[in-house]
């Protein structure tokens, strides 16, 4: 057993270390926000300061109004929400099959196929995907991004759902079946209401993944009308000069939605994420 | 309706399973399996995005071209460094933070939230923010380091090939370690507390308890996340592209960036596909190894 002095020391060590790690994790965001609020003269200086002498919303105004980030935000939301809903529907169906019919050969093979496809990087398939989208004439559209984002989150989302379904007792379903429910009714009336927490975390994962994705948006979209936030941020990085103030303001805009959603739903999110990753 | 009734229970089960899996399988077949097949096919053919006159069977020519690329060896080495040191760093920091957070004290939830936040943000935002902080002229980090006399002159962290790789690895660790923290934390919380207590009564110190009681319990979760991250890190494109685009002078060019260079800059799809095929083969080998290891580990546990 630890004596009292040791316990105090261990508490202090814990707090000091955690403050240190948290500071490293949080400081870049603080600096991002500070830079976004600074006028140009305070950004391009060799003696950067934590204080802002003349705070300004100039950068945000430039980003949102002049550069057209409002449109990009709208695009990002639209693409992410549709991709999220679509992948949830697919993941619920496939996850149910993986959990309930695991003994079947077809299901086992699908499980293996999903594990494998989790390891295939987007960049490896970039060219054929580009050509497929070109052939289907959906380059420069929301559809191309929605399809790509949905595909790449299906495996993990399916594993998240199926590991939850594993915990739902089979007896519940059998009872519903005896009462005359068909499969669809059983799923909608019995299983899904129970799975709300996992649905939230799966959906959140799909949403955040789509919101944060960069490469497909960068390659598939070149018109302002359909551009999403993450590739738009790259626009600030010119060939010779970088508009750091604008870049940081754009970053703040891109980070705010995910951070807030996470803060409200973190309890669900973390638990679901873990169950899926350990299974997949 | 009548026809359905006649199906046996097994047949009905089979039908349900097929219907439920169908959407997922369609997506995977059309957008992963088919493109993958195309990549493997193209690796053996002359394919060029612009110069359409380049056609026909290439044999091993694409592979030879890629292997003869003067930057190939460097890219393989970079990929290995990038992957090994990133995963190692993430594992260590993730483990330390998880151990710290796995104690009872006030404010635990706040610290956990703070530590998890880097994982949420887009890679491009993480990369660009660090790029800005590390800027040699106006960056806060160089200013702080010179001010504290740790370095005498500002360092161009991302522009100097001596530091560039270490810097991108650092930023990658910063963004990715929270996933380890949360995984370890949830695994530790499922370890029965009396196990550690019993060891403490038997006189085991903090470190001994960690290495003899906690760590062995984390074997299975460690295997899963280390494997997944080896793959995810090795194939990652965004991070390095955003921060250095593979430069300076190829110092941070990994294989995914080389694939990108061949396909989107040289438009030589054949060579890019040959490179992708090689990478994919290595990953399949890793996967088989992992799959075996995992099966034997879950047999142990059972």
Automatic annotation (TrEMBL), chain A:
Its main location: membrane. Residues 73-265 form the ABC transmembrane type-1 domain. SUPFAM superfamilies: MetI-like (SSF161098). It is a multi-pass membrane protein. PROSITE patterns: ABC_TM1 (PS50928). The keyword Transmembrane helix applies. Keywords: Cell membrane, Membrane, Transmembrane, Transmembrane helix, Transport. Pfam families: BPD_transp_1. It comes from the Bacteria. It is found in: Cell membrane. The chain crosses the membrane at residues 12-34, 77-99, 111-133, 145-165, 186-208, 244-265. PANTHER family: INNER MEMBRANE ABC TRANSPORTER PERMEASE PROTEIN YCJP, MALTOSE TRANSPORT SYSTEM PERMEASE-RELATED. Belongs to the binding-protein-dependent transport system permease family. This is Carbohydrate ABC transporter permease. It comes from Blautia parvula. The lineage of its organism: Bacteria, Bacillati, Bacillota, Clostridia, Lachnospirales.
UniProtKB/TrEMBL annotation, chain B:
SUPFAM superfamilies: MetI-like. It holds the Pfam family BPD_transp_1. This is Sugar ABC transporter permease. It is found in: Cell membrane. PANTHER family: BLR7065 PROTEIN, SPERMIDINE_PUTRESCINE TRANSPORT SYSTEM PERMEASE PROTEIN. InterPro entries: MetI-like, MetI-like_sf. Residues 76-290 form the ABC transmembrane type-1 domain. Keywords: Cell membrane, Membrane, Transmembrane, Transmembrane helix, Transport. The lineage of its organism: Bacteria, Bacillati, Bacillota, Clostridia, Lachnospirales. It is a multi-pass membrane protein. Its main location: membrane. The chain crosses the membrane at residues 80-102, 109-130, 163-182, 218-235, 269-291. Belongs to the binding-protein-dependent transport system permease family. It comes from the Bacteria.
